Amino acid sequence: MTAAQFAEKIGISPSSLSHILSGRNNPSLEVVMKIHKACDYISLDWLLYGEGQMETDVDSDNNIHYTPSLFDENSLFTPEGPASPEYRKENEVKAPLYPSKEIVREEIKYVEIPAKKITEIRIFFDNGTYETFKPEN
């Protein structure tokens, strides 16, 4: 089975599978679940954690068996069983494309304003008159 046929069987695009096999992308949980659904004889523990045997005891005539040309570039899928951590192909953490922004320090300056003083109070009455009161200094 070719990689394109496998991608079609599990329901992903051939380019997505190619990126996973080349190590450019890691498989998402959704892709792992699609592989497990299409190939239920593959152990979920093996797919997720690389632990235990690759195939479970389920035996079916329509199972896909390992084809070296399909998974040569991805050491996660090997016929020998789970890959040792020292031989797994991991994505390298790359430096960011853009430099981080310079930290800008913002200062807030509080200016004291003099206290307000009452200079005049006016009281208006309903008959149209008013009185003015001024504080004594």
UniProtKB/TrEMBL annotation:
<protein>
    <recommendedName>
        <fullName>HTH cro/C1-type domain-containing protein</fullName>
    </recommendedName>
</protein>
<feature type="domain" description="HTH cro/C1-type">
    <location>
        <begin position="1"/>
        <end position="47"/>
    </location>
</feature>
<dbReference type="Pfam" id="PF01381">
    <property type="entry name" value="HTH_3"/>
</dbReference>
<dbReference type="InterPro" id="IPR010982">
    <property type="entry name" value="Lambda_DNA-bd_dom_sf"/>
</dbReference>
<dbReference type="InterPro" id="IPR001387">
    <property type="entry name" value="Cro/C1-type_HTH"/>
</dbReference>
<dbReference type="GO" id="GO:0003677">
    <property type="term" value="F:DNA binding"/>
</dbReference>
